[in-house]
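User: Hey, my collaborator sent me this sequence without any context and asked if I could get a structure. I don't really work with proteins. Can you help?
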Amino acid sequence: MTPKLFIVDDEAPARARLKTLLSDIAAECPHDLIGEADGAQSALDGIAALRPDIVLLDVQMPGMTGIELASHLMKNQSPCALIFVTAYDEYALKAFEVHALDYLLKPVRASRLAEAIRRVSTLRTSAESQETSVFDVAKSMQVKRQNFSVQERGRVLLVPVRDVIYLKAELKYVTLRTRTQEYLIEESLTSIEEELTASFVRVHRNALVARNAIVGVERAAHTVDGDENDKAQDSWQVILRDIDERLPISRRQWSVIKALVR
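Assistant: No problem. I've predicted the 3D structure and written it out in C-alpha cell form, which is a compact way to encode the shape of the chain:
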C-alpha cells in the first residue's frame, strides 16, 4: 500500500525543499503527499483529519516543539509513524524516546529520504500482517539509530554505528573511535549503552566497545590506576579489530567479555 505522507515544518522553504525531494524520489519510492502544516496546532488538526501513515516532522518550531508534538501524537489510538527532519543533531535521543523511526539531518539527501520512507513502509506492512502497531514491530526488530552525529570543523557529519569500534568517556566528552579517525560527541555512555545494547558492550566504567569489534583478550603489562575495585582484573585488556589500541577490562565486566570470546 502506498504510504500517505504529511509534512510539518514552520519554514516554507524547508517544506518546499521536502516536496521537491519527494517529487524526485516518487518513481523509486511511491507515496502520496496528502498535506502539510506550519505549526503544531495546524499539524494536530490536519493529522487528525487526514490520518497520514508517515509524518515528516521538524524539531524547532514556535509554540510547541516537534518533540512535544510527537508526544501528543503518540497518545492516538493508531499513531502515525514519525520521521524527524531537522538541522539539529542534538535532539536525536529525545526523538527516539518519542518513538521516532528515523532522524534525518538537513540538508537531506534524496536517497536518504527514500531509504527512510521505504524502511518505515516495511515496518507498517509487517505490523499489519501481525495485527499490531508499527512501534511494537520496530521495538521487536530493535530499530535504532543508524548513525552518530558528530561536529567537525563547522560541519555536521554522520558516522555509521557499524563503523564505530569503541566509545570512551573523557571529562565531559565521549571519544568515538573508528578505524581511521576519532571524534568527540556530547552524549553519555549510559544513554548510548541503553539505546544500543545489542551493538555495544561495556568493558570498563568509561568505555563501550562494539561487540563485533572484539577479536580477543590479552594480559596487559600494567594495571590501570584510579579504581581500587578494578585493579585486580585490569591486567586483562580487549583486542580490537583494525586498530592496535587496547582497552582495559574491569573486574566487574571480566566475566561478560570472557564469555564473548570463548
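In plain terms: The first helix runs from residue 12 to 24. You can pass these C-alpha cells on to your collaborator as they are.
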